[in-house]
Amino acid sequence: MKDFILHVTDAVYLKDYLIQITFNDGQTKAVDFESYVKRKGVFSPLKDKTYFKNFFIDLNTVCWPNGADVAPEKLYELGKSVESLPSGNLCNADIPALHDCKYTPGFFME
User: Fold this and answer.
1) Where are the beta strands (DSSP E) in 6-105?
2) How far apart are CA 88 and CA 48, in angstroms?
3) DSSP code of residue 78
4) For residue 31, which of 80, 68, 73 has the smallest C-alpha distance?
5) What is the distance between the alpha carbons of residues 41 and 62, in angstroms, rounded to a whole number?
6) What are the helix (H) ranges across 16-86?
7) Which of 31, 49, 58, 88 is at 20 to 30 A from 101, Cα to Cα?
């Protein structure tokens, strides 16, 4: 049996530095990138939220135009499972960026 290789299949901006990421095992997780945007080097441009929102999926993970990316395994580890949250409501999650969000199933607003 071959080892399972984790891939990002979808990514949706939620708010601040938070992205909802779906993986090829069917899990959907909210990943807070705040710790990454505080870093120097390739992650520095991500501090600009307009630039941060320009992410895309390439090489089976979330990437930015300047070459910044994070391994899908690390995203999976950092993410909070959407399915494990009460009623899938990310606003009640233990994710600081979402404490004051408004939630409608399937739609997120700042």
Assistant:
1) 8-15, 18-23, 28-32, 56-58, 61-63, 80-81, 102-104
2) 29
3) H
4) 80
5) 17
6) 34-37, 49-52, 72-78
7) 58
25/4 Cα distance (integer angstroms) = 9
Q: Which of 20, 51, 23, 18 is closest to 35 using CA atoms?
A: 18
Domain borders along the chain are 8-109
* pLDDT digits 0-9 by tens, 3-37: 889 999 999 999 999 999 999 999 999 999 999 99
CATH number of 8-109: 3.30.2020.10
pTM of the model: 0.75
Q: Answer yes or no: are the C-beta atoms of 98 and 14 closer than 8 Å.
A: yes
Average pLDDT, the chain: 82
